[in-house]
Amino acid sequence: KAALYENLDEHTRVSFKDVAGLDEAKTEVMEVVDFLKDPKKYTKLGGKLPKGVLLVGPPGTGKTLLAKAVAGEADVPFFSISGSDFVEMFVGVGAARVRDLFRQAKEKAPCIIFIDEIDAVGRSRGKGAMMGTNDERENTLNQLLVEMDGFATDKGVILMAATNRPDVLDPALLRPGRFDRQIMVDKPDLKGRIDILKVHTKKLSLSPDVNLKRLASQTPGFAGAEIANAANEAALLASREGKKGIEMKDFEAAIERVVAGLEKKNKVIN
Ligand code: ATP
């Protein structure tokens, strides 16, 4: 079921201007973009490029978006899979999937392989499994390590992965030549939230009373995904009432809804 290959055409293509805030993270991944555009320029002097970039940060902060933007900016194919997809797989399927993913990617290089929620498959080995048993997740992780060691970056395949639990990852994943770069993708500050609001209200019809700066100050602790969600909710609320433009109070009602949703979610977790 998991679609491995996402062909980001002109409608779904993401660029850096779609990623608001995250200036530092963008600067850091710029190097990857540059490399994917012209791998030879970098390897001519014999240097080795990073193979794997780990994006670390809370849910909804734009890690997937940033990885897609790297592919978009470099104009290369984007292969993605979620670590949690592997967990449900039958014996042997996870490892075969990993092999298949790398084989396809090598054929399309230069390109990006993105593994979301890598912690689902990349937790430390040897924990939880009974003595002597080699559980399916470990097989998948081992295959991933084998594949990472088996390809040379000069082919132009760059691995990106996302997690909000870097602490549980198997140290083998973080060794040099694997995910040896970590980039923080944090929740936005006030300015970041203003920028994210700008991106997500660009195509909306706003009434003149809308003040994005004030809305940003009403959304402390929101991740980008929650801000995007609130903007869309505001548009729906205003449409339902047949308004010509989305008003400040629609945004405020939408923000309340998102906050209520978050509180509910936290209750379930705690
Ligand atoms: P998860 O860890 O839950 O997979 P994530 O960090 O990968 O989350 P995304 O899936 O990239 O988050 O973000 C979800 C959506 O939220 C994006 O598609 C986008 O609409 C919006 N969003 C999140 N962060 C940003 C941002 N910095 N700028 C603009 N939009 C953002």
From TrEMBL:
One of its GO terms (cellular component) is plasma membrane. Acts as a processive, ATP-dependent zinc metallopeptidase for both cytoplasmic and membrane proteins. Plays a role in the quality control of integral membrane proteins. In the central section; belongs to the AAA ATPase family. In the C-terminal section; belongs to the peptidase M41 family. Keywords: ATP-binding, Cell membrane, Coiled coil, Hydrolase, Membrane, Metal-binding, Metalloprotease, Nucleotide-binding, Protease, Transmembrane, Transmembrane helix, Zinc. Homohexamer. It is found in: Cell membrane; Membrane. The gene is hflB. One of its GO terms (molecular function) is ATP-dependent peptidase activity. ATP binds at residues 57-64. Its main location: membrane. Residues 49-189 form the AAA+ ATPase domain. This is ATP-dependent zinc metalloprotease FtsH. The keyword Acetylation does not apply. The keyword Membrane applies. It comes from the Bacteria. GO terms for biological process: protein catabolic process; proteolysis. The chain holds residues 178 to 447 of 700 of the full protein.
